[in-house]
Amino acid sequence: xxxxxxxLTSIIIFGITAQWLSWxxxxxxxxxxxxxxxxxxxxxxVLEPDRLFGNALPHIVALSVxxxxxxxxxxxxxxxxxxxxxxxxxxxxxGALVTWLVGAAGAYYLLGFDxxxxxxxxxxxxxTGPTVIGPLMRQVRPVGPVGxxxxxxxxxxxxxxxxxxxxxxxxxxxxxxxxxxxxVVLGVVQMIGIGVGIGALGAWVLLMLLKHYLxxxxxxxxxxxxxxxxxxxxxxxxxxxxxxxxxxxxxxxLANQRTVPVEHIVEFKENLRVLLISTLFIxxxxxxxxxxxxxxxxxxxxxxxxxxxxxxxxxxxxxxIGTRLNWRERTFLSFIAPRGIVAAAIVTVAAERxxxxxxxxxxxxxxxxxxxxxxxxxxxxxxxxPLARWLKVASTSRQGFLIVGAHSxxxxxxxxxxxxxxxxxxxxxxxxxxxxxxxxGLDAIExxxxxxxxxxxxxxxxxxxLLALTSNDExxxxxxxxxxxxxxxxxxxxxxxxxxxxxxxxxxxHCLQGRILCGEHCSFxxxxxxHEQGHMVKSVTIGLDWDDxxxxxxxxxxxxPLFARVETADITVVTSQTTFTPKPGMTLxxxxxxxxxxxxx
Length: 601
Known about the structure:
This protein is α/β, with parallel strands linked by helices. It is 62% helix and 8% strand. It has two domains: 56-391, Na+/H+ antiporter like fold; 400-599, Rossmann fold.
């Protein structure tokens, strides 16, 4: 097979396979991507990135990182900064400085780097990994300000760390001496100024094109990508390596404007990000040599310990003095700083530049950096959830339900869930329904589930599922679509839409529907009729000593099953695809036949 074709196909195959396995095995994706990249490169030899991409590789990596940071910027909302803005600004300034200096000292004394390479390596490792922090936060689901702080820091620190690295590299190459803090800080300020200006200009150009309908729908994503590349190139031309900050700023401006909707652009970039992260890690890991895999030593282990247990805690303490963060939140922040794709990309480019100029020891930068990435991802991936639970900053179980509609039998469902220890939050535009729910002791909010900002304004602690129970099939469908990005397609449920056999064009497309609660024929009118006939929503727990006849009698009274739970296990939502057999120890929830009617059978 043509080596070029083999290399290109192996990148995609190894990358996406690693992503799928990480999801299946519940492991950090970066660990498997690194493993697969090493297999594809130095072990099996099916991928030789330098030979495949040649001199274009650094530019491909840089543009890919720009897209990743652009997508990250699209997820940042200014309203999150009301409580955490001070902490974020300090973390990306004071915190970055502390991490840089401590990392440089560790590299000098523990790794044996000369002073120049030590300062450079400290700058490279001042970045954290938003591509790792994001999955970690989805796993931990922290409450309070911790989540927004980590998200903002992780995205903003990357372009700043990249600029810091470039400035240190520039000082080393041009002056041959040690970089001064003042020179580096002034350089970073200049880069940020150019990045903000060019990034905001690029966002304005895209907004004007979309606002005046100068770009057709099918070209909006390609045009946004084209403008992004132009923004990166222009900023890089004016000030080398300010392109990453410009890309991030362009995303932030687009995310916080209210002129045109950009949700479709966000969704496209999220999918593109997964592909880029997968391919980048495979490519960069494949460039490692067999000798690089022997970087593990007593000094490198000590250096990693310094980064985790000294550099990060010191940077957090120095950055959060005087902020609103309490000691629990500060402690958690002190132990979340994994390195990711940006660190891998930066160190690859920097080492190649130094190696070309004949600097001794530059080859060690890459091997130790990848060791740091692997170690920090493993440590924080293992420690994050237990630490968050111990500090009480983690969300509770995500078995709870966001229920759209607070009418009488929706309240009955919420009440049964509450009695089972499962959180239920009701949302309705009808003030009377909301008042009735609150009178029953339920959590209820008067709001439109389709309003702007609803996903960020709701308190979703302990909630990971959606039940759309309104009488309007279109509202149910739109609510499902609104919360798929937050809960996932597998955890959004709705009532069966009314079939339109005579006029199928009036029905709802199947691809737009969520999972159908309790079967394809379980519509609002069906459940409403049962409710009006006296059927009650309740839970029945099958006793461990019940015989088959007693179990059959209890099951016969269940007209519409909604949920099932075996002892303390997670609640299973009953859909058309659910098959279960009532058995001892199982709790059944649904619409039950009135007791007097059941007694007549």
